[in-house]
Amino acid sequence: MKLFVDTADVKELETCLERGFPSGVTTNPLLVARSGCTDFGVHIRSMIDALIKHDAKIPLSVEVNTADPAKMADEAEHFVKEFGDYPYLNIKIPVGWNELKVIAQLARRNVPVNCTCCMSYNQAVMAARAGAKYVSLFWGRIRDIGYDAGSVVRQVRETLDRSELDSEIIVGSIRHLADVNEAIQAGAHILTVPPKFFPQMCAHPKTDEAVAQFMTEFRAWEQAVQANQ
Ligand code: E4P
């Protein structure tokens, strides 16, 4: 199981990279728009610079900024030219009938595709068959419409495991810490998680209690030793 960071915030990304755990990064147009940047190209470049600075040889998914499948191929091409010097670049293409053509074209050229916005079993399977390296299932958004995200992920995983395909499931749209645990149990290969959850994932009140007890007793022992000298 791999953990990706779901962010377009360079500072948040660096905070994670410093801690060594990320296996990848996913962005999307909404995250970019909310990052406070003013130039898309410059911003993606600064994310790549951060990855290089931290020697992180990990996938970075950059999503096309158009909903028009006819324009996606050109935009993907542009990304490959502009950011393709980063060898772990992935292009994110939303799932859809006409979008599959773009996925297939990129896959044939060995450009790794992250097929995004998948909400159903069928969408994920079609994307994988078209050549997507990653199929991104949106856990929170699937649940928003009353479906069981866990069984969607479980079924896609079972199908992939029985196929010759090497596509991996990324579960995104994480809203709660419990989503992370449930998505892992459901069979996600990868979870892409907003950075705000990572500190929580490292914390436990019993850890704090244990460390505090160790320190209290150690200090008391130190004082006792000093008093006896
Ligand atoms: C995943 O790749 C997406 O960036 C993200 O998880 C979307 O989730 P949202 O439902 O929070 O927009």
From TrEMBL:
Keyword Transferase listed: yes
Class of enzymatic activity (EC top level): transferase
EC number: 2.2.1.2
GO molecular-function terms, A-Z: aldehyde-lyase activity; transaldolase activity
Keywords on record: Schiff base, Transferase
Statement: the UniProt record of this protein carries the keyword Heme: no
GO BP terms, alphabetized: carbohydrate metabolic process
Stored PANTHER family: TRANSALDOLASE
Record protein name field: Transaldolase
